[in-house]
């Protein structure tokens, strides 16, 4: 349904042609300094019309905060917020409405609800994601202030244009296909690990395609223009890194951290694929090469030498960089006629419609970041509940030493350390 | 946490070395004929020791139903069930316990809980999945009886050994890598679509690797033996098809059907990747080729000519076969020494341990099927709530015709049709 | 938190001094004809300034629907709605802010959140209930159209002014206190049962006190005026009847119908007590007198001769009228000085504040009705899921006859019967 | 359904005539020392056969812990547990099965599920509460160790036999019925407040009736014997106090602490009424008398001079003793013939059945305590999440002083203080 989360909850509403789209964000930590601008920044990265590569509609998308904040500080109560729709009348009837758009949500929404919005796909509209981005911006403000967590998404492929092997996520590195050879050269290269550690939103936003590798960005732009000129569309992938996540997040068994992230990412319109860490490529690397050996890090804590796991082991964050990749299919709405059938089954040609976004992947970056922030925030609250609650128990003295070699209390940062 | 679902709820308990593992299945439809054998069949497909390719432990894994059934019929109340652990004493302390096993859950469980089970990874044990398989078997019994739904998983790759392009899921078809060429030859081939439509558990179980393509199965066996002999391990992928799912399942916006499936699959131990329909490969195919055009099917209902979407559009099932692929990383536990560090950071060599499963993918098949059944059952209950509730409203006469061309009431099957 | 419900979900936001208060209503059945007026009617019954017995503030409280409806018909997607606050600036600081108001939420909100809204009690404001009333109005529209369900609340006591024994709920009937005498004369009198069966909102609204017994209403008015003149406040009880609820609602074991109703009612500000059916008085009546014997009703179905149970048995509705009573404490905010302490513990006198509602019970009536509608709607959806799902199973033939004497399929109304 | 809680979750299964009843307790803090005996103590207080006032069946009710504990310490993973049923065959068919028992769950269970357990009421069986008592015992162990919280329930009335006014909860104090007199003499008497502060389980268990006032206990015993001899039954009330609860628990708006407690209590079989603090009686006391003025307590913290509120204000605990009262109706199962109707509507006489518990209230005491512990534990975890999360934020310097006079960080106890 339209609510995400256990303790940090995002509930959204709104279609394309109604008065507004918006959200209620419940469970926001009290005492957080938060302004509309904190939210607006990500909303503006999401909205159309940022370059001539995307749809030319110029939506203003100004956020209006309704509640939950006084004097610039959160009260701990729900934050209501909304963004007005410019065009909030139901669409007029046209002949194209006789056709469910192929691979769009028109037909399935009608099958599910029995009525459908004039815009066809109802809540499958990209405008629905505004509430998510707003919720994510709030989560992110906390995560940055309290933990220095950084979340950066970028475009890792458009069509067949991929990042070069040296800086690509493992699955985008070409394989030799030799089943007797265990190597996967270049996968998890040091350059890729370095990219994960350093990539910033500023770097990413330098290119309209949001690909941090300029040379590849040029080829992606070219690929998108080719789709645009062909009245066609093209998909791509977004890779996202989350830096600075404390160890211990994720709730086995059903709410392992990668399961929550996968759920969140595949709830974004047009997504069809998710992988974390080495992902599908990791299925080809033998355990002896794939295992991330432990080392003592500079700060004295355990870490891993490699990071095939993508920062999550046993469904729980291990403190290393979390990285994952999300696949967005090519947009269903294209500006060329399609041979298909009407709702009543009559075969025919669905006429070309107006101009559309030939590639949504660059605009999807802030949405991926937002859902990542929402997941981490919710999991952090749950783990904090466990830690803070267990910390009040008297020490256990009856356990064999190996059961408490490390542990909760030791892992609890000193008050002073955490307050920055 | 350890509960899945909204109306059909599976709650599991149990580690490797406790008295039993088990589950409570709540929300089971009343009046369903159900026996222990219905559950045992899938449990036996999951358990180790089925062939010499898997771990030689011979667990019996007999299910004991505690409640919720009388005279072989479900009461609609929770079904408690358990499977006893053969070895239910905490493990003895050994020197290897000084080391968190690389890429295993030992360290993250300790970071999360502050104490850890003697077995190390606690609930990350494969035995936890017994409760899921039992819950899935109950869901599946309903889905088969009421809707004729069939769920069949199979091994689509082991290491670099993939199904041949003609019968492989799109992402396993090699690409030409030519970014100026929009074609992806062989992806979504008619043979693959035919395989999805016809593959059965009987066929799958003919091979110990659970790959329905005998020639590939031979190569997979060879690949697993090579890992076994090298005291190493290897991963792989499971592809699963769900046939006969009614249209309308999935709850936008956050609980789109693919999001639920991704969550369920990535909650299984050792999973790192998920894709539905054309998945990652679909990001490379232009919209004009990727869109699934509508056609009137033999039964008079709308369907799609192709099925790049994998049976889900706009987050909602469209009645076509649902297929998806899950990536399992190579098992972390290997029978060779590893250079790593102890909990306290001391570098050292973790000695080789006993014999282990070099490849878990064949045994993962019934777990994937179980989670798929649980997701579909829960979503079906929710959509049935909407359908049955909306069906009691007086007909709406004020809507423009295109808003109700098809719809809920018309879509409701006649009583007789659905009862087989 | 701020979300109610499993399938019919009401999420609210808003304090006294923010831009607006509002709600998102998710899970609304699609195809329901719904207008702003359907919601406004109950909002207007809730708002202050309806008579000189209540606070003289004249809030307009006009609802603005944001989404989920087109052409006057629900889409099945979330309905966002809001009501603007007239005064949406944080309050200025005054010396009274040094004092937490006794028995108000000022101190506990500060203890919980660490910061507090300028209005003190934050979400404990009565304005928060606007979102509930709106959600309830939507639920009620469905319940009326699909099932002819009627929900009517009325004031059954103000201070010590009670309805006369002949028409009072059992607990308001004076007891003889004779512990050797099992009788409780007049409790559950035929007049009371008749009142439950016939009372309407029109009757209730004839009196500003919303007591349907004119003579008692006069005494209640007098009692409220006495509180008003003494710069004091007084509490009271609301009794509510729900007519026409189908049998089978309520989800054992934790979500028994009375448990859900109690939860919903005690979530309303200022409530401290709940009883259903014979309630506390029923604890004094022996089982032989208290048991509701079964009879065949005029429509051929089983019913009960008496209704001590209040329409719920075993936690499940039995088709009889559901009635319950809710106790509202005397309002904490009074217009006279109070001896108390400041936040820092300094003893002192909290000065009198402006005019306040001396008795909120009449205005609480639509809030009680709204929460009742929300509970019934959610439970109806869940039970419809079970019924519709179980109805698709093949008939069970192996059960002893007494296990299926009646039952789900037989209980399913014919299509035509239910569609009015 | 059969799961309670957000972070501390109790899921139960089991009917009267199945193999076992049990529960899975999820979200238990790791590192808690816990033995079967901790659970058994409360189970034994719940089971029948403790005195000749209760049913003579001698159930052993030994708990078997399945998981989640090693070396006597919780792992933080789910604790599975079960208690075997002595008689686990479905009952034989008898002629009385033609009749739904009046005011029992037989008919409503059949209406709801369409099939019914051989025992009739299915999960409405008192044996279902075993899982709750076990879950409550685990919660209580934590609450005692970490916070010194004490939960004590006692019988406050049986039929018309009440505690004397001086030690009775407000609603059990007789009223003068004079609507022009604002006084309610004796309500909230110092003796009652003293009783709340001092009553212990040891005192309560001295009397088979579990009434801590010996003289009243004698009259209660007499009343129960009279019901027993008349082959009849009688109800009563349980009052419960929770001492030592930290301020700040309860989640507005829908999950106010009293709403959660009411939900929990009315989920217990045979309950029909709930009030907290002054409850229904509080509706008759003017605000000026009912308001709990603040005072600085001996420990320097704010407290209240009186406690009409019952320890909860604005839906949030304020640190004072929480007390509430639960009404249990007279048991439906009686050993005398009843004039009623069969399932098919035929009027007739339901013959007397065997011996039954004439009054369940004494045995209900540990169940009330268990549900109270479960509610507090879950709310504590949620508030700890908020506190621990907010505590990591940088201090807010921009708020008006009255918004942060007290607050979260100040309220956080020093590490040392809380660890006892």
Order of helices and strands of chain A: EEEHEEEEHHEEHHHEHEHHEEEEEEEHHH
Sheet of most strands of chain A: 5 strands, antiparallel
The chain-level structural class of chain A is alpha+beta
Supply the CATH architecture of chain A: 4-Layer Sandwich
Mean pLDDT of chain A: 91
Highest CATH level, the class of chain A? Alpha Beta
Can you count the beta strands of chain A?
18
Instruction: Give the termini distance of chain A in whole angstroms.
Output: 37 Å
What is the assigned CATH homologous superfamily of chain A?
Chorismate synthase AroC
Report the portion of residues of chain A in β strands. 15-25%
Question: Oligomeric state of the chains?
Answer: homotetramer
Shape, principal axes of CA atoms of chain A: globular
Q: Which sequence of strands runs across the widest sheet of chain A?
A: 1-2-3-7-4
Query: Which fold name fills CATH's third level, the topology of chain A?
Result: Chorismate synthase, AroC fold
Most extensive contact: A-B, 147 and 147 residues
Overall helicity of chain A: 25-40%
Radius of gyration of chain A: 23 Å
> What's the number of structural domains of chain A?
1
Query: Which residue ranges of chain A are poorly predicted, with pLDDT under 50 across at least 5 consecutive positions?
Result: 405-420
């Amino acid at each position: 349904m339209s609510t995400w989360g256990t303790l940090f909850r995002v509930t959204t509403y709104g279609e394309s042609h109604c008065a507004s789209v918006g959200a209620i964000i419940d469970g926001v930590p009290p005492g957080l300094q938060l302004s509309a601008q904190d939210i607006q920044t990500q909303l503006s990265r999401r909205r159309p019309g940022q370059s001539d590569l995307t749809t030319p509609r110029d939506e203003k998308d100004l956020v209006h905060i309704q509640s939950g904040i006084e004097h610039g500080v959160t009260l701990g109560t729900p934050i209501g917020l909304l963004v007005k729709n410019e065009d909030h009348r139901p669409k007029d009837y046209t002949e194209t409405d006789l056709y469910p758009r192929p691979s769009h949500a028109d037909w399935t929404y009608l099958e599910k609800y029995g009525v459908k919005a004039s815009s066809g796909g109802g809540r499958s509209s990209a405008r629905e994601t505004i509430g998510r981005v707003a919720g994510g911006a709030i989560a992110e403000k906390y995560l940055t202030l309290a933990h220095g967590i950084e979340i950066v998404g970028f475009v890792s492929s458009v069509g067949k244009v991929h990042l070069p092997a040296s800086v690509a996520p493992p699955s985008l590195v070409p394989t030799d296909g030799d089943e007797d050879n265990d190597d996967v050269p270049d996968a998890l290269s040091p350059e890729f690990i370095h990219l994960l550690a350093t990539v910033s939103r500023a770097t990413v936003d330098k290119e309209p395609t949001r690909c941090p590798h300029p040379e590849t960005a040029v080829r992606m732009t070219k690929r998108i223009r080719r789709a645009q000129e062909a009245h066609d569309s093209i998909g791509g992938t977004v890779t996202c890194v989350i830096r600075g996540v404390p160890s211990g997040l994720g709730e086995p068994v059903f709410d392992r951290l990668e399961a929550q992230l996968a759920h969140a990412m595949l709830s974004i319109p047009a997504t069809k694929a998710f992988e974390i860490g080495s992902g599908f490529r990791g299925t080809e690397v033998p355990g002896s090469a794939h295992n991330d050996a432990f080392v003592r890090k500079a700060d004295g804590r355990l870490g891993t030498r490699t990071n095939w796991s993508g920062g999550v082991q046993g469904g729980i964050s291990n403190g290393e960089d979390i990285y994952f990749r999300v696949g967005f299919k090519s947009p269903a709405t294209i500006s060329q006629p399609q041979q298909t059938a009407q709702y009543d089954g009559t075969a025919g040609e669905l006429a070309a419609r107006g101009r559309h976004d030939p590639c949504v992947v660059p605009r999807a970056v802030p949405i991926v970041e937002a859902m990542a922030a929402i997941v981490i925030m919710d999991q952090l609250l749950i783990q904090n509940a466990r830690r803070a609650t267990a910390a009040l128990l008297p020490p256990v003295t009856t356990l064999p030493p190996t059961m408490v070699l490390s542990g909760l209390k030791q892992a609890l940062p000193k008050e002073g350390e955490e307050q920055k």
